Amino acid sequence: MRSALVRRVLVAGAAAGALGAIALGGSAGAQDEERGARSFIRGLDGKVIGRLDLTPQRGGSVSVRIQARGLTPGYHGFHIHAVAACDPAARNPAGVVTPFASAGPHWNPDNVSHGDHRGDFPPLLVTRSGQTRAMFTTDRFRIPELLDMDGSAIIIHAARDNQANVPPRYQTGTPPATGPDAETRATGDSGGRVGCGAIRLAPRAR
């Protein structure tokens, strides 16, 4: 009688242990889904000038934190680009050296005009000392979407970003046409690229 009872207790204990292992495995998977992403942003000389942190929030939104230094004062365009490649000696399709062209165009999986790209961010305001810091929330993407086969990168541009907001009274093109032209609809006229960082999965919290 006693040995049978002991066997039942041992079997029950083993079953509980197995269930516990399954539960722990599920918890680890959930933690992976909740991990954030990070990017160390490098300037044209290859030195780190800033850091981007993307942190998932409840409800599916993402907290964005950026800090950078060594930039020219004023506004700078600031977007996610389509490829996790930051080569300051990259060449454009015409063969001309164009820093960080390796990061590709704006990340735009929905194929819409600039201002509505899912990786479009508010412009950065840089102080007279060359520093900037910003924090905001977006619900336009989930972090795993940025970590596909070719990854993605964060780019700081040389010029301000008009968000493709060109009133119809401005005439563009030949013959004249109203509204933003193709380049504005694609880039917001943000100019060259002065900072680039590949977006990677953040280290697991300890």
State the domain count: 2
Can you summarize the main beta sheet? 5 strands, antiparallel
Lateral strand order in the biggest sheet = 7-3-2-1-12
> What is the gyration radius calculated from CA atoms?
24 Å
Instruction: Estimate the strand proportion.
Output: 25-35%
- Fraction of residues in helices? 10-25%
SSE string, helices as H and strands as E: HEEEEEEEEEEHEE
CATH topology of the largest domain: Immunoglobulin-like
The computed structural class is alpha+beta
Low-confidence stretches: 1-32
| CA distance, first residue to last residue | 47 Å
- On the 0-100 scale, what is the average pLDDT? 82
CATH class of the largest domain: Mainly Beta
CATH architecture of the largest domain: Sandwich
Written overview of the protein:
The chain has two domains: 1-34; 36-201, Immunoglobulin-like. The two termini are 47 Å apart. The chain is globular. Helices cover 19% and strands 27% of the residues. It has 206 residues and is an alpha+beta fold. A five-stranded antiparallel beta sheet has the order 7-3-2-1-12, with no helix packed on it. A three-stranded antiparallel beta sheet has the order 5-8-11, with no helix packed on it. A hairpin with a 4-residue loop joins strand 9 and strand 10.
